[in-house]
Amino acid sequence: MLRELPRYECLLGAAEEYPTLDPSATEAFLHLLRTGDVVFGVESSFLAQHNIRQGGFTVLMLLNRCCETPSTPAALADHAGVTRATMTGLLDTLEKDGIIRRSPDAQDRRTVLVSLTPAGVALAERVLPKYFECVARIMSPLNKTERKQLVGLLQKIQLGLSSEASESTSKAPPVGV
Amino acid sequence: MLRELPRYECLLGAAEEYPTLDPSATEAFLHLLRTGDVVFGVESSFLAQHNIRQGGFTVLMLLNRCCETPSTPAALADHAGVTRATMTGLLDTLEKDGIIRRSPDAQDRRTVLVSLTPAGVALAERVLPKYFECVARIMSPLNKTERKQLVGLLQKIQLGLSSEASESTSKAPPVGV
DNA sequence: GCATTTCCTTAAGGCGCCTAACAATCAATG
DNA sequence: CATTGATTGTTAGGCGCCTTAAGGAAATGC
Known about the structure:
Radius of gyration of chain A: 21 Å
Number of strands of chain A: 2
Oligomer: homodimer
């Protein structure tokens, strides 16, 4: 959220006041949050140009991945990492915009089958090529080796967080501290 | 937002359908967004344990940085990267919780001076050491060299985005595509 | 003195997320 | 078969953070 990040020298100075402050860790942490936020903002702007919200785009991608097998709201919610109530809201919006369709499941009358409408398919066909261009442009400052390096570093961080979560509690809340 | 990321092989497959899809770029992009999101979630959970919201924490950090020079809502909004209306809301919450105080400026009667209350200072003193511990724990999977590497890679990405924004328009909207 | 700018705030709204409660339905059990 | 317990999707209410638009008050420039 911070517009400008503190310089490394400032972190060194602050480390004298706060013994637990690890300058290199804090610097990397702030850059990670900041860059993630900026990149997310660029992606959101791109999607906004096509009148798509982040939530809707996620659903669009999930449905586009396997057109033949319509999903259920529950499955979509699991894959998207939101509650089912949230997914209901996302689907409401997409349905109102004519992008997805809800249909009953013959086998199980509790469940709803969600699928892309022709308009939804057309939207994906139209937006995705440009989307991937946008992604490529964002990542263009890095060559292939650097991208692999970045992925490796990020994976290490994520691995540490997931193992930490499983260590502390067996219930394993999605995000623990 | 996606819970699980597509494997690199899947990206290679999708690249055949979408010519603009650059597998290494997309992989790095998704990992960046995902890791940023997870780390942000861990930070938010930590703050929630102390009844602090992200917005409030940002203000707390900004005010704690230079206790002697009270800030104005406008300066805080600029540094936090939000509108002044948003900052008014954040300050309302913090003031209600007794963390900050608004006082008039003798020099300029339009201006409001914002400063931490003793309770706000105490909150910072109490939370910041643990916060930096949390940050250090998140970054613990990386050694110092890897952290520097990560910062370098992230800076390259950010630099590319900021130069791109200044290239396209002279009006320079905060986030361009 | 008057116009412009700057300050902060209010008002209204959007989006995304959550929890809690609910009716409908399925599955398993006695 | 009938009851119990799970599961599905939805609604209702709420929170956090963000925006734009409008407005009063005060400073500044001409």
